[in-house]
Specification:
By secondary structure, this protein is mainly α. It folds into 2 domains: 2-160 and 325-347, no CATH class; 164-319, Orthogonal Bundle (Helix Hairpins). Helix content is 76%, strand content 2%. It has helices at residues 45-60, 65-81, 86-96, 102-108, 116-123, 127-161, 164-226, 234-264, 266-321, 326-332, 334-347, and strands at 2-5, 12-15. Strands 1-2 form a two-stranded antiparallel sheet. A hairpin with a 6-residue loop joins strand 1 and strand 2. Bound molecules: zinc ion. The site of zinc ion has 8 residues, from loops.
Amino acid sequence: MKIVRCTSCHRVNHVFSASNAKCLFCEESFSNLTPPAPLFDIPYLFLNEKIGEIDGLISSGKRDGVTLRTLSRLFDEVLEWQPQISSVFWRRFLVSVGCKTDQEVINKGVLIEGNAAYEAAFRHGNEDEKEAYGLLVKVRARIIRLLEAELIKSEKSKKIGTDAEKKLADFKNQLANEERQVLEDIKKLKGIERTIREQEMDCSSIAGEYKHALDKTLQEAKHIWRSPQNEISYEDKTNWESQLDALQRVSNAEFEKLKQLESSHHAFADYSRLVDEQKAVCAEINSRKGNLDRLKTSIEQIVSTIKDITDEYNSVREAICAGDFSKAERVLSNTRFEALVKQALREVK
Ligand SMILES: [Zn+2]
């Protein structure tokens, strides 16, 4: 690993292997690059072998328990002799964040500042090293700003894609319409109920006349019946019996009239029509209530869809702050994410 200044964009790069190396920022190929010189001179030449072992393990990408313990031992052994070498701490930083290269550090979005190994690397770094480390911190901050702006656009477009705005407007219209209809129905119902009460009074006064006639006939019959029958003559008795028969006929006829009245008189017909109307309006109000319940369910679904999208994007933002760009990459697409990273690398000075 060595620091190389790009001849094209003049920014410093960590080069891990001389072959096929290119600038992290402008992608210019580094040709005729000499392999990195051994890190240690006499009397610490023996540490170069350990550094070679560390580099091999880092570039293998293995991060299992055994590898990590081996790396930890190797770092301790090197630092025991040389505790102030910046590039050793940079290697330790790469291991601590599970990366092989600076490019991976950038793409993963790992937290750089605050990492103990990074801070030590910076503290012991020369001008070029400090510049290289500082550039990565700036790139990360730039990527985060680009991601935040992109996430706002993406979240908005996903929410628009649910058609929620149109659905909400439709919901408001339907709700207002149902509300207006229900109010009209209630007004209609009140009118019907008022007419029913008036009609009831008419009906009872008409029926009252017939009932009065029936009562009168009944009273007459009782009067005839109560006469002292033992003191009456045979002729009288026959006469009363025929009077009773006549009264019974009258009473039957009145009763029939009352029955007919209920089925044919316009007041009774109006009354039963009004009762039917009353039932129909009540049924309509109930059906509108059903419509309102259905509207409520559909609006709850829209609200829940929007909330899911908000939650998803908030979790992406939290992951970014916690040092993980992978969720943002999934949400924005791999192509868009890579384009933003390249843009940040180009722009940072
Ligand atoms: Zn460059």
